[in-house]
Amino acid sequence: MAAHLDGPDLLALHARALEHFGDLVRAVPADGWQRPTPCADWTVRQLVGHLVSEQLWVPPLLSGASVAEVGDRFDGDVLGADPVAAWTAAAAAARAAFAGPGALERTVQLSYGPRRADGYAREMTVDAIVHAWDLAQGIGADTRIDPAAAEFALAELAPQAAGLASSGLFATPVPVPADAPAGDRLLGLVGRDPAHPFGAAR
Fold it and tell me: Three-state SS for 4?
């Protein structure tokens, strides 16, 4: 399993995850925004909106703002008339905020409490990796997950495996053979069925 990443290595993987998700956003066909995704009740547009909103939170949280101070600033439709431009701007700002001097050593106030910013960056990287698969499924793009990215996400999530479904953020894990590719094992852990992608997933 991949080693725990910190510093420049973590920033590099985070950047690659955002770039991959961005490539998929740019590949959404004009008539593809209302297509379903493996995320229950989320269309392609809603999925991309979720990821854009998450990126928009990064700069204020890294600047010391609390969840309450940010409030509902990023609720509702954050994509506007140009979803690609919205993603590009939000992702660039989030990436720059994490890469700022000393940013990964700060403490951020998240909805569940304080966390070191490098942990927040790892969480955001995992989210981008998993949701890129969801988006690729929704638009019929290449769904392969980079093995190194999958191993990283598995290493991050494995210690929480017993509580992932009960957190309300993931569906019940899907059994996957122990010798399956890392990407399939990751998908199973977070409640995605590689063989039936539009089954129950959150």
Answer: coil
